[in-house]
Design goal:
The protein is of the alpha+beta class. A hairpin with a 5-residue loop joins strand 2 and strand 3. A five-stranded antiparallel β-sheet has the order 3-2-4-1-5. Helix 2 runs antiparallel to helix 3 and helix 3 crosses helix 5. The protein contains five helices and five strands, in the order E-H-E-E-H-H-E-H-E-H. The chain has one domain.
């Protein structure tokens, strides 16, 4: 069976139950990103926590590669190469963070009043690990194909840009 790249949503009717599931979800096979959203009984939405596997790798890796290339110019070249590489890697990570924020905005209507939602971006060889996690913590499960979800996010971004353009 080939891996499915999904956004797995775990919905908790009670906001108190998400933390243990979030901590456990960080060890799911194939997990790339996790976020916890919580909505108070009066409707206030809050992003409570996020986790990204490999966070910082692009920044450090690009910096080290830049330093190696910069060594051709001596110690100052290595320093400048590291700085330039780290800046490029950080820009890539910031772009990902912006996309993740837009995705959470799209998911926000799914968070019940007084409840919580865990959004997991995961490559699943089998749905069993996430389904078992949800069952252990009393959450309902919904899966959205990653490509379909990306299209939903892009459509929402386009609609927001059009609304902004019409307002100016």
């Amino acid at each position: 069976m080939s891996d499915q790249h999904n956004v797995v949503l775990l919905t908790f009717p009670d906001a108190d139950g998400w933390r243990p599931a979030f901590d456990e979800a960080q060890h799911l096979p194939g997990l790339r990103f996790a976020a916890a959203l919580e909505r108070s009984a009066d409707g206030l939405l809050e992003a409570k926590d996020t986790f990204g596997r490999g966070a910082g790798v692009a920044t450090v890796g690009s910096g080290l590669l830049g330093a190696l290339v910069g060594m051709l110019g001596g110690p100052v070249g290595a320093f400048l190469g590291f700085a330039a590489g780290a800046a490029l890697g950080n820009a890539a990570e910031e772009h990902f963070a912006g996309e993740a924020g837009a995705a959470l905005i799209v998911l926000s209507p799914r968070v019940p009043d007084g409840g919580a939602l865990l959004a997991l971006e995961v490559r699943e060889a089998s749905p069993d690990p996430a389904d078992e996690l949800a069952a252990r913590h009393g959450a309902s499960v919904e899966r959205i194909d990653e490509h379909a979800f990306t299209e939903q996010v892009r459509a929402a971004e386009k609609k927001a840009e059009e609304a902004t353009d019409q307002g100016s």
